[in-house]
């Protein structure tokens, strides 16, 4: 399916290709360093992506020039959204929303995730897209909130 972001840029959502993995690893590294400013940047490594995404289903938002604008990874056994990362230049342009809506059964299936409390922009995004907070915990990156989707959302 084709989409157009708020900047007028056309893109598609599709399964990640094996050749995408180095780009995804770099995007994962860059966005975490840009977003998680409460942690030291050297905490994050390029190699993290391979282990963090192991066994997950990965979809990418790909521009017509083949540039990857963002990606979402899901642990399919329990509909757990492990990662949703969008290139800084494409944040706020509808790419993240399109990645969510492209998930199998988005309108009827319950998805869950953990959102770091200090990442208030991400939390606001998830709340706008049908998630509610159901619990809390602590991780190496800081406190987080468990969030799940409410069925019957657009």
Q: What does the radius of gyration come to?
A: 15 Å
- Estimate the strand proportion: 25-35%
Order of helices and strands: EEHHEEEHEHEE
Mean pLDDT: 93
The share of residues in helices is 10-25%
Describe this structure in words.
There is one protein chain. The chain is of the alpha+beta class. It has a single domain (about 1-150), classed as Gcn5-related N-acetyltransferase (GNAT) (Aminopeptidase, 3-Layer(aba) Sandwich), CATH 3.40.630. It contains 4 helices and 8 strands; from the N terminus they run ββααβββαβαββ. It has helices at about 20-35, 50, 95-100, 120-130; strands at about 1-5, 10-15, 55-65, 70-75, 80-85, 110-115, 130-140, 140-150. The strands form 2 sheets. The protein has a 5-stranded antiparallel sheet with strand order 1-2-3-4-5, with helices on both faces. Strands 6-8-7 form a 3-stranded antiparallel sheet, with helices on one face. About 25% of the residues are buried. The mean pLDDT is about 95.
Summary?
By secondary structure, this protein is of the alpha+beta class. The protein is built from 4 helices and 8 strands. The radius of gyration is 15 Å and the shape is globular.
Give the arrangement of secondary structure elements.
Blueprint: E1 2-4, E2 10-15, H1 21-35, H2 48-52, E3 57-63, E4 68-75, E5 80-86, H3 95-101, E6 112-116, H4 120-128, E7 131-139, E8 142-149
Antiparallel strand pairs: 1-2, 2-3, 3-4, 4-5, 6-8, 7-8
Which characteristics define this entry?
five-stranded antiparallel sheet; 23% helix; 154 residues; three-stranded antiparallel sheet; alpha+beta; Aminopeptidase
